[in-house]
Amino acid sequence: MNIYSHINGVKKSNQYLKLLICFLLGSIIWIFAGTNDVTVTAWRIFAVFIAVIASFILRPFPIGMMVLVGLVILVSSGTISTEESLTGFADSTVWLVIAAFLLAGAMINTGLGKRIAIWLVLKWGRTMIGLAYAICGSEFILATVMPSNTARGGGIHAPIVNSLAHSLGSHQSTNPKGAGAFLSLVGAHANLIAAAMFMTGMAANPIVSRAVKDVYDIDFGWGTWALGAIVPGLLSLLLLPHLIAMLVPPSIKDGRKAQKEATRLLKEMGPMSRNEKIMAIVLILLLLLWTTKFIHGIGTTTVAMIAVVFLLITKAQRWNDVIKNEMAWDTLVWLGGLLTMANLLLKYGFIEWFVDNMQASVGGLSGLAAILVLGAVYFYSMYAFSMLTAHIAAMAGPFLAVCLTLNGQPYVAAAVFAYFSCLCGCITNYSSGPIIIYYGLGYVTAPKWFFVGMIVSLFHFTIWMGVGLLWWKILGWW
Question: pLDDT tens digits, residue range 139-190?
C-alpha cells in the first residue's frame, strides 16, 4: 500500500468515526424520547436534529447529504410523513437564497465582482488604510446580492489580498507583518460585518429571518434587516481598519505597488463586457426594488427570481451555469431540510418546552436586559461551533422564543440575533469558510487570531449595543 492510499484510508476511517459519533448522540436522545412532558415525536425530531447539527460541526460528509439522511430517518421510522418532510422546501426564504446564489454565480462568471474589488483598490489603495477600505467597500457592495460569504471572501477577496500582499513584498515566510497579516485580518472581519448587514450577506441569514417571523410574526426582511444594520454596520467598516492597524500594525505604509498590481489585473481583464454591464444594471435594479417594497409590494423572493430570469433571457447567464451552480442546489437541500425540522420542532411542542425551561434559568431578567444577556451568551457560544450555519440553526430560534416570553422588544431581539449570528464568527479561526481561508493564507498565527478576535468581539459589542441601540431607538424599535 502506498502512502497516498494509506492517507485516504485514514481519512475515510475518520469520516465513519465522526458519523458514528453523530449517530450515537442522536440515538441516546432517541432512546429517552417521551420524557419531560414532551411527546415522543418531538423528542425523536430533536434527536435527529441534534445529530445533524453535530454532523455540521464534525463534518463526516457534506451538510446537504447529512440533512437528507436525517429526513429519511424521520420518514422511514414513521416519525413524520413524507408530506411533512417536504414542507421546508416550499418556504420562500429557501428560494430567495437559491436565487441569490444564482445571482452570485453571475457576479463571478461575468467578472463584475472581481472588477469592483480591483477598481476600489485602484482608487483607494495609495496607503495601507486605503487598501483596507477598498476591501471593506467591496465587501459592502457585493454582500447586497452575494449570499455566500465564502464566495465573496474566499473566492474573490482572499486571492486578491494575497496577490496585493506579495506585490508589496509581504510573504508568509518572509515579512508576514509587512502587509499580509493586516490585510488578511481586515478582509476576514470585514466579510463578517458585511454578512451581518444584509439578509443576502450570508446563506443562513434567512433562517433567522424565518425564526423572527415564526416567533414574533413580524417581517424582518431584506429592507428592515438592512435598515437596522446600516448605521452600526457602516461605522464598524469605517473603524475596523484603524482597529486592526493598532492590533497588527503593518510595517509597510505605502500601497502604490499594490495599485500597480491592481492596474495589471484590471488590464488583464480588459474592457467591461456586455454581460458585466447587464449584471451591473440588474444589481442596481435589485437594490431599488428591494428597498422600495413598501411602494410596489413585490416580494423579496419574487424580485430575486425576476433578476435571474432577466439574466437568462439576455444571455448574460446561461442555463447551463444555473444547473451547474452546486452551491445553490446544495443549499436547497440543507436549508429546506433544516427549516422542515425547525418547523416540526415548533409544531410538536419541543420549542415551547425548551423555552419554558430556559425562562426559568434566567428568571429575574426581562425586556432589553434579557435580550442583551442572551445575546452575549449566543455570541460567545460560537466557540463551540465550527460553522455559522450550525450555530444559527441550533440556537437562533429557541433564543428568540425565550426573549418573547421575557417580554423582549421584538425588533431589538430580531436585530441582536440577526446581526450577532454573523458577527460572532470573529472570535475563532474556524468559524466559517472565509475565516478558514484567510487564516489558511498563513500570515497570522492561531494565538494572534484568537487575541484579535476577542478584541474585535468587544469592538462589535461597543458599536452594535451602543450606537446600534441608539439607532434602533430612533427607528422606534424600542
Answer: 998 888 776 787 788 778 888 888 888 888 888 777 778 888 999 999 999 9
Total count of residues recorded for the chain: 478
Tell me if the pTM is above 0.90.
Answer: no
Taking residue 354's Cβ as centre, other Cβ atoms within 10 Å add up to 19
Instruction: List, for residues 243-292, the tens digit of each pLDDT value.
Output: 999 999 998 887 778 788 888 888 888 999 999 999 999 888 887 888 78
CA atoms of 219 and 105, how far apart (whole Å): 27
How far is Cα 368 from Cα 478, in angstroms, rounded to an integer?
A: 9
Return the DSSP state at 384: G
Q: How many CB atoms lie within 10 A of CB 236?
A: 29
Query: Is the CB of residue 224 less than 8 Å from the CB of residue 172?
Result: no
CA 448 to CA 468: how far, in whole Å?
28
Question: Residue 58 to residues 20, 63, 299, 384, 426: CA-CA distances in angstroms?
Answer: 11, 10, 37, 11, 20
Q: Are 364 and 385 in contact (CB under 8 A)?
A: no
The residue extents of the domains of the chain are 1-85+338-348, 92-327
Long-range contacts of 353-356 (CB under 8 A, 24+ apart): 353/36, 353/37, 353/38, 353/42, 354/398, 354/401, 355/398, 355/401, 355/402, 355/404, 355/405, 356/405
